[in-house]
């Protein structure tokens, strides 16, 4: 028989939004526990260390929106988080040119395409009529080809694909309507000693509030439960209790928990699962309202990938923060523009139609890759490559030998050397195959309606008895700083505050 455990509030997920939710509740005297499916803390904040002691963030790496990011000042005051503003010199690199001369004037054209996306596409399209960034580039090029040189016509669209490396999806899928609305405020600061440092600071705040002296006591005392996969959530309308059922991933033991309030911090990619046989899927009884389920269908999840290439020494230009390797020109696009022919663009939101055969050896010069120079940022001989789907799924499922086979020509190209050493270690993400993330973070795919989805989750109407006892938090449940750590943190602070207010009102 399942064991029963009652807590006033239960939080699902021990990522940053789950921890912040617990902090806010504990501050205000609200009994709570966190249930986490993984065997570790952190969620999509995940720092590892190489054999040489270099911290590598497989999850978040940056404090974004430094103008308005509340975490920046908090970490500065704490004094133990190191960061570097990696917004210095960045080179555009192609197979044909090597480092591209500014005289080709690709950046101004790409800026004009961005303006086209913002001023035209945002207003012109609805979720029902939306087009991809690739199709929007085609429309722009048709209109402005008389103003462009041949090389601008070929390579400026490839520079626009920089969006792929911000969101994590191919330009074949990225929404032209939404992409320019993904606004950010201020600079971006890369954490150089591991984002886990900030996460541990939050854990320290939590364990002190709980009366403990170290993080391990949060687990030892049952404040955080690991390896507990939630598979069903039900509601007893008579008793006004939420029942949460978990399966221990090691012992397979079934447990039942009860609570009055629930904070759900799982990624939206997992929340929207309807096949309950899939690991991580949660069955709600009664089901989530039709409106919420419909809105979840109008939001996507991306797969930004990260690959760390560690070398014995730095052999690439060390006065550059970033190297953006452009894909070779899209011949179908340029031929259609030059010949005045039409292209049919797919509206399929499912990325499976353009996946890479894992048995193949894809051409590295057909994809956008952004290299972060960690030799400059963190004084370590490491290149961090950011990639987007479908390349992410290919790399994340490949051996290190195949990974290096793909990246070697690109690294040689940015270094300007014909012969380069092999890396001494390779580490990469596996978020796309992780059942508890199923990608990196919330995306912006053709036809997405993120604002409507966020509104429905924040309002959380008609769930169970309709009194607001279920709250959703995380990077995908905020209009401010969506996809960012501070967005998740702020959403947790706000939604946990609603539960505190509701409990306080009930005491009057």
From TrEMBL:
SUPFAM superfamilies for this protein: FAD-linked reductases, C-terminal domain (SSF54373), FAD/NAD(P)-binding domain (SSF51905)
Residues annotated as domain Amine oxidase: 16-499
Recorded GO MF terms: oxidoreductase activity
Pfam family, one: Amino_oxidase
Annotated Gene3D superfamilies: 3.90.660.10, FAD/NAD(P)-binding domain
The protein's name in its UniProt record: DEBR0S4_02828g1_1
Annotated source species: Dekkera bruxellensis
